[in-house]
From TrEMBL:
Molecular function GO labels: thromboxane receptor activity
Entries under InterPro entries matching the protein: GPCR_Rhodpsn, GPCR_Rhodpsn_7TM, Prostanoid_rcpt, Thbox_rcpt
Primary residence: membrane
Protein name as catalogued: Thromboxane A2 receptor
Keywords: Cell membrane, Disulfide bond, G-protein coupled receptor, Glycoprotein, Membrane, Phosphoprotein, Receptor, Transducer, Transmembrane, Transmembrane helix
Membrane-topology descriptor: Multi-pass membrane protein
Annotated organism of origin: Cyprinodon variegatus
Stored Gene3D superfamilies: Rhodopsin 7-helix transmembrane proteins (1.20.1070.10)
Amino acid sequence: MADSSNVSSCYANTSTPYIYAPAVGKVYYSATFTTLGLISNLIAFIVLIKSCKETRNQSRSFFLIFLGGLVVTDFMGLLVTGSFVISFYVTHVDWSKSDPTCHFCNFMGMSMVFYGLCPLLLGATMAIERFIGINLPFVRSSRVSKKRTVSMVLMVWFIAGSISMLPILGFGSYHIQTPGSWCFINITSKRGDWTFALLFSLVGLISIATSFFLNTVSVVTLIKLCCGAERRQRRRDHEVEMMVQLILIMTIATVCWCPLLVFIVTTALAGTGYTVKYLLLWIRFATWNQILDPWVYILFRRSVLQKVNPRIDWSQSSVRSLYPSFRENVRRFTRSSVGSNLGSDLPESNEKSNSTPSSPTSPSSPTPLLVGSES
């Protein structure tokens, strides 16, 4: 055990004491989990590159850049954290003896925070981009470019990286967790540890709440647009496809991350410590986000759905063609509402429409007179 006077104190006894127990986990589970996630993200990255080359829609190309940033983040997160966990179960190394200066623990903790916040922040950023693209298309088209989209992804990485480095600068600390294969936030009654734990959780929860609110508004707006004229539907297919993918990404992030974030908030506010097995359970639950995210784009694309259900006429560019019953209900409702407001005026309008063709013939009668006079 390292000296308790160590500045980092990542191995010191706190409210979450470290217990070296390599027999708690199995290398097969970690290896299978990491391999599945890496393969999934690699497939998604290849599909994204192919789609970027084929797409001609500007808003879709920007959305693919955000998806690419999300896939790269998930891939690197699994690669970095999975490598350390697998090496621990293979070698049974005791980091408190091999790394008394806590370099490993700090790096592992930074990786857990960085690769945990990035998907949540990227999800919120994608929700903001789709909200502007659907509700304020003219503002978006004049101010958003590919370079600016890439810079937004880089900014998200910078913000997450800055938050993860705060314990290195003395604001909070990282602590090795049982069974000794990973490090995470040190949740104690100390002011710095308590504040940093709340900061991490609140940033994640605010990102999820922002995504939920903006995506809800965007979906409502998109439904109104999809019920408009047919000529406007042809430009909304990609919008619907992107919103479906974004909602699924938000749902996965909410289900996977909310238990851990709420657990950290309640533990920090209570200040009474917690059971390590619950923290380990919610961490494993949260890491499923990195495996499920890439399959959203791999599976929920029109080209894939067309193969799954070829009976649907996917060649048409109308979103309403996928839901004929919904379209007919909208038409019936529209006709009934128009008929109730204009019921007595309909016969007169028909008579006027029948009499209008005679109007263009009337000015034609003076034509021969004019010709005759000229002759």
